[in-house]
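User: Sequence recovery, please. Input:
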């Protein structure tokens, strides 16, 4: 897939004065629930109403969606509010039903993007369509798999494309339900700057208090829009209750978020600087995370040495590490002096950690 300006046409045609806002419940629950949320959203910045009709659950036994019946509710919400509609499709039959019910935007879920077979089935079912198709990142952190899905649609002559960043699952649970791994969408953006990129802070966060900051980071990184799960009674939502916010909160959030307008030299300079600074912030976060993980391994080594009664400092090993890192540093244009400085500091911290384990 080459980088084609045509990928942005659908977004440009919307002529929005702000980034695209897609909002609505995780799941369509009842007709009145969906209509009520749609009416609460229609006077906010949200131009697209989202609602899951078929819900892919990681484990069975959770609410699996109302099914095709919900498509009628989406259609009614569109008639009453004038909002565009979007839902997730996970097979050719879903596509057929969604098209029959005039859904405007189809999204491909994270559990679908992982499977080239299903992606191909859906791309074939949509061949040549003018509908907008948004492709969520796969659950695992694999840029090629994500881009492969985009390419399958592009090759099937589906040109109104975009991607949604919803984070990546990890075995170890941390702050986020799905780790953002910002570097992956940043790489994608560098490769395909004209492919619209939308942030799904809800599935990254898993909890509503993190949503605002995630959106701000996304906007600072030049994302084209956000998709936020929204419900009038978030705590009692039938799925993803902890991460949904009310339409009122969403409306306030879009007022508080700093949206960067690209106009004039001065503003453009500031925007570019801001984007680069946000990229540096992402890298710095990764550096600290990696250093922390490295020290945890040092702690384990400390434990082993204690058991075997081996001394902490092993000069030969340390010289080997240093030599290897100086060579690797050269490849990345990092001076020997710099590598020596940071590795001495890292080594010292490592020794301190081991000492703590051994001596207590
Ligand atoms: C959703 O948007 O409700 C959803 C199921 O998302 P994901 O595919 O990102 O898990
Ligand atoms: Mn959800």
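Assistant: Recovered sequence (360 residues):
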């Amino acid at each position: 897939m080459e980088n084609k300006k045509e990928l942005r046409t659908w977004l440009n045609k919307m002529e929005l004065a702000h980034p695209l806002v897609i909002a609505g419940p995780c799941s369509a629950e009842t007709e009145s629930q969906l209509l009520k949320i749609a009416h609460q959203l229609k006077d906010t910045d949200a131009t697209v109403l989202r609602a899951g009709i078929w819900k892919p659950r990681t484990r069975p036994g959770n609410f699996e969606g109302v099914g095709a019946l919900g498509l009628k509710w989406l259609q009614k919400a569109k008639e009453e509010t004038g909002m565009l509609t979007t839902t997730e499709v996970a097979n050719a039959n879903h596509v057929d039903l969604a098209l029959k019910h005039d859904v405007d935007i189809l999204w491909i879920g994270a559990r679908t993007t992982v499977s080239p077979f299903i992606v191909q089935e859906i791309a074939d079912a949509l061949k040549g369509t003018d509908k907008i198709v948004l492709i969520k990142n796969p659950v695992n952190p694999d840029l090629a798999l994500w881009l492969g899905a985009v390419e399958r649609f592009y090759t099937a002559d589906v040109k109104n494309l975009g991607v949604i960043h919803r984070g990546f699952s990890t075995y170890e649970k941390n702050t986020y339900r799905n780790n953002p791994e910002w570097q992956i969408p940043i790489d994608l953006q560098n490769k395909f700057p004209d492919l619209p990129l939308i942030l799904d802070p809800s599935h990254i966060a898993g909890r509503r208090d993190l949503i605002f900051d995630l959106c701000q980071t996304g906007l600072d990184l030049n994302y084209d829009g956000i998709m936020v799960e929204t419900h009038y009674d978030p705590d009692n939502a039938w799925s993803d209750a902890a991460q949904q916010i009310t339409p009122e909160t969403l409306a306030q959030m879009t007022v508080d978020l700093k949206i960067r307008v690209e106009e004039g030299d001065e503003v453009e300079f500031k925007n570019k600087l801001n984007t680069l600074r946000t990229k540096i912030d992402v890298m710095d976060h990764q550096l600290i995370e990696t250093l922390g993980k490295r020290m945890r391994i040092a702690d384990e080594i400390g434990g082993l040495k204690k058991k075997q009664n081996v001394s902490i400092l092993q000069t030969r090993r340390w010289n080997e590490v240093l030599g290897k890192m100086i060579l690797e540093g050269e490849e990345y244009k990092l001076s020997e002096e710099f590598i020596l400085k940071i590795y001495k500091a890292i080594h010292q911290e490592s020794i301190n950690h081991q000492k703590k384990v051994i001596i207590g």
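Residues 96 and 125 are 8 Å apart (CA to CA).
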